[in-house]
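Chapter review: from sequence to fold.
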Amino acid sequence: MRPLPARVLLLLGLLTTAAIGVSAGLLYVVERDVQNNVRVTATLISALLTTTLESEELTQLLQEALHATDVPMVITDPEGEPTAWKGVEGIPPDRVLPRDLTPEEHRRLDRFIQRAAKDNHVFPLRFQRTLIGRLYYGWPRGVRWLRWIPVWMFALALLTTGGVIYTTRQLTHAYAQELWALFAKGLAHQMGTPLSSLLGWVERLREEHPETERILQEMEQDLGELREISLRFSRIGRAPEFQPLQVEPLIQESIRYFQRKLGTTLPVRLSLFQPIPPVMGDPVLLRWALENMLKNAYEARQGEPHIALHVEAEGPWVHIHVTDHGKGIDPRLRARLFEPHTTTKRKGWGMGLWVLKRIVEDMHRGRVILETSRPGYTHFVVSLRAAPLSS
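The token string follows.
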């Protein structure tokens, strides 16, 4: 699976931007129409307020004028006392006179007036330059929802962009993993033929020159390590071969293998908190993962290396704790510690912890975390799934 091309991302961005632009333009047109409607209504109401009608008759005419529009409004006298209203949330349509309002409905009118004044939704009502009242208005219900469209579109754009970025990163990761698997499988295949040939030559030399037995044994050991490497790469290129594995022998084999590579004894203290159930895993791959943990701890040493491993079971998990007393991990590297090519060593490839994470998490559905690290102490935890109990 390949990541989405930049062309598709650009098209998604353009479509989202266009949608936001269209909705914002539509909202501007609707708001302008509402303001024009309110302006006409305010002119009509100003004319009504200058008539000599009785108070209740005038209130009735004002209510009728207000009901000619869908815009919620409140009309006040110059002192700010409401005289007529329409569409205020929480006030029934049959409450048309101030004396009919309950205290709570009076508070609702006050809140409407304060909110409209804050939004500058006020038209002064004048007669010959004399202020005779004010008209406060809000947005119709449909316009109120419409005003949220750009916000929703922007939120949708953020979610879409985030989803595209996340999906692209996941696909890129999957694509890199696929390339890595193909490379590993091809490398193992290419190594197989010369390794078999070299082993054949060792046997022939043993038959024809038995005096070289000591040298041939060293050659066989080196070829055995190459064969182990080839086997590991071949396993990366295909599905793991899961089987129940006892943890202590698995760790001991990893320690011995790493010691053979170093050519020296590695001071490792292993402790198990019994009972430890077997784990489900591929022995070749898990030995490789544990070897990388030991290698990482060994290379972080200051003076003599001191590495401790202790194992404990917790529910369906088996936790392998690996601690060392080395120089610690630079805090600037911790965020990308398990990414390829992350290393502080001049000649390091920075692939050990990445291989560890791929084997444990991607292939065995386990977990690898850096519990803590400071100068003189680093603690990693490798968690593997326990094998199911046999019936």
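Two observations follow directly from the output. The radius of gyration is 39 Å. The chain has a mean pLDDT of 76.
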